[in-house]
Amino acid sequence: MSQPVTSRDAGQQPGIAVDIDSVAIAFDDLTVLRDVDLHIAPGEFVCLLGPSGCGKSTLLAAIAGFTPLAGGSVASNGEQVRGINTHAGVVFQSSEALFDWLTAEQNVAYGPRMRGKGQAESRRIARDLLKKVGLSHAAQKYPRELSGGMKQRVQIARVLANEPRLVLMDEPFGALDAQTRHVLQEELVRIWERTGCTIVFVTHDIDESVMLADRIVVMTAGPEAKIKTVHEVDFPRPRTRHDVARLYDIIQDDIRVEVAKSLRSQGVDVDGEAA
Fold first, then answer.
1. Per-residue pLDDT, 227
2. H helices of the chain, where?
3. Residue 235 CA: distances (Å) to CA of 46, 110, 191, 231
4. Cα–Cα distance between 140 and 105 in angstroms, integer?
5. What is the dihedral sign for C-alpha 213, 215, 219, 225?
6. Cβ-Cβ contacts under 8 Å for 151 (sequence gap 6 or more)
């Protein structure tokens, strides 16, 4: 497993472990996940990868404490998750999670202020993080004045401002253009190395997962999805596509099989095979 090389921020608490044990999640008569087992080590960067509808975001929501379990258990920092996970910061897919009546800077400073930091310190934290996500020029703008991608970057900064020991990210860069996505991927790795937090990152992008993760968890097609394979990404950062080419091909084959299963379950003819 790749090890962080950047010195950590002073006073930053290290990341925490997440333990997922025989988890099942169902909505009415539909079982979305079944028999999911996964241990995530403190400070690890794990990507959840799989075809659409495989329950990646549902599993992330269970770790956050947003979704009740039909079976099994989730623990973080050795504590059972029952209700909202207070150790976690969550970056949602939607960019609409900001306070409309606050500027970008005020949105990011809100968490530190609520945790008792002074106004000047909270503003310093907000400005530093907005600079890191490339939005210094938009600090005094309101969400309605920002594009969807800009709002998503403010949301990422707002979560990181709270210095969470566990960061849960649900396709946070999906709405961004390729160049901005690449820049923020690199900045996220630097922030992770510096803080030592644990990151669980949902994505449908194989390239993104092999560039970011210590481990990639590939899930089967749903319903009743489970973990198919777990791949170690044992390459130093920063990585190039050449470094991870073979791993990329292996994961792509995994995903291709699961996508085909999903399509067949919907009655779609795959490779000339009747469902």
1. 94
2. 56-64, 104-114, 119-132, 148-161, 178-195, 206-212, 245-265
3. 14, 37, 18, 12
4. 6
5. negative
6. 95, 96, 98, 143
- Of 211, 216, 187, the closest CA to residue 200 belongs to 216
Given a cut of 60, is residue 2 above it in pLDDT?
no
Does 164 sit behind a cis peptide bond, omega within 30 degrees of 0 on the bond before it? no
When pLDDT is averaged across residues 129-152 and rounded to a whole number, the result is: 90
Q: What tokens does 231 get?
A: 């791949």
Task: Find out whether the peptide bond into 14 is cis, omega within 30 degrees of 0.
Answer: no
Which class is domain 18-87+165-266?
alpha beta
Query: Sheet containing 227-232: which strands, arranged edge to edge?
Result: 88-91, 166-170, 198-203, 45-49, 215-219, 227-232
Q: Beginning with the edge strand found earlier in the chain, give each strand of the sheet holding 18-27 in spatial order.
A: 30-40, 18-27, 71-76, 79-80
SS3 content of the chain, % helix, strand, coil (to 5): 35, 25, 40
pLDDT above 80 (res 9): no
Q: Residue 174's pLDDT is what? A: 82
Q: Coil, helix or strand for 196?
A: coil
Taking each helix axis as running N to C, give the angle between helix 148-161 and helix 104-114, from 0 to 180 degrees, rounded to the nearest 10. 20
Give the number of other Cβ atoms within 10 Å of residue 178's Cβ: 8
On the CB side of 78, CA atoms within 13 Å amount to 0
As to burial, measured by CB atoms within 10 angstroms (0-12 exposed, 13-18 middle, 19+ buried), residue 49 is buried
Distance CA 44, CA 193 (A): 10
163-188 confidence digits (pLDDT tens): 899 999 999 888 788 888 888 888 88
Rounded alpha-carbon distances, angstroms, from residue 51 to 5, 32, 166, 178: 33, 13, 25, 21
